[in-house]
Amino acid sequence: MDFAPPPRQIAGSLRFLAELREIAAECAAAGVWDDELTARRRQRDDVRGAGEGSRQELQVKAL
């Protein structure tokens, strides 16, 4: 049985891959990998879920 995933799932997957690619490029430019890549992704996720004041603080920490 062949079925196509819902368009919404495809769009979400593509957004995730684009974000992962961007983070990987940042880490490659900085010369860091693995644990640092995971840490930066978590910080970005935290920034998205934080309030405005916390968001700016987390962005500074991510740098």
- pLDDT average, as an integer? 74
* Low-confidence residue ranges: none
Alpha plus pi helix count: 3
Tell me the major beta sheet: none
Distance between the termini: 47 Å
Q: Could you say how many structural domains there are in total?
A: 1
Estimate the helix proportion, in percent.
Answer: over 70%
What is the general shape?
Answer: elongated
Question: What proportion strand?
Answer: under 5%
Number of DSSP-assigned strands = 0
Write the layout of secondary structure elements.
Blueprint: H1 7-30, H2 35-49, H3 52-62
Helix pairs in contact: 1-2, 2-3
Structural account:
There is one protein chain. 0% of the residues are buried. Helix 1 (7-30) crosses helix 2 and helix 2 (35-49) packs antiparallel against helix 3 (52-62). The longest helix has 24 residues, at 7-30. The model has no long low-confidence stretch (mean pLDDT 74). 79% of the residues lie in helices and 0% in strands. It has one domain (7-62). By secondary structure, it is mostly helical.
